Amino acid sequence: MARIDDNGLIFSEPGDIVKVEQRLRVANYGALIEAKPEILIHHLTGNRIPFGANDSAHDGTQSMVGRIFAGAAKFYASAYLGRDGVLWQVVPFVRAAIHVAGKWNGKEVNRISNGIEVTNTGYAHLDGKAPGFTIDPTREDFRQHGNLIWHMLTEPQNSAIIEIADAWRRWTGAAVEDCLRGHHDVDTDSSHIDPGPELRALLDGPVKAHLEAMAL
After folding, report:
1. Are strands 181-182 and 148-151 parallel, antiparallel or unpaired?
2. pLDDT tens string 105-132
3. Residues in contact with 55: Cβ distance below 8 Å, sequence separation at least 6, in sequence order
4. What residue ranges define each of the domains in the chain, with the CATH number in brackets?
5. Cα separation values, 8 from 132, 159, 178, Å
6. Which of 156, 14, 74, 182 is nearest to 3 (CA)?
7. What is the pLDDT of residues 134-170, one digit of tens each?
């Protein structure tokens, strides 16, 4: 099973669904105030992803990671999960990334949290118009929730998210619910609506059930 070491680096083991690559940003935001982060926050990247582009080289994950590694990104999470289940870690979990605004329990969120960006288009309106671009609304990898269609996660992402949350909880000792946070759960004043219904269903269902079973 995936594990996180004392330096905040995550490693996958043979047989794991999640495969980890490290491309660590040279200049990090700063050390976490707490000995261990308190919450794990899940984001959706919200980028245009062509139908069938389910690997890190073509779904935008590697290009995002490359910009962060080069210091070209002002905001960035701790790691990026491609649609192939490959997790690209850009900041050690013992350091703070700049991925969410505001405070949590009176503390600056970035200094007590880690952020996982899940490569996913996010939502579009029923006519296919998404924030900043347009998609084919009949795509099979989108599912309707209310008056929006949402990009579905891939099976490798589903399994990898469970493995990442499991490793993170074992490392931090955090409460189960603090391993399941989404961007909007923490920063309710922002325009972000991730994790959205697809990722939320995964977090509140299989991920929570797994973590609770492992905690027994």
Report:
1. unpaired
2. 888 999 999 999 999 999 999 999 999 9
3. 82, 83, 84
4. 3-123+155-215 (3.40.80.10)
5. 35, 21, 18
6. 14
7. 999 999 999 999 999 999 999 999 999 999 999 999 9
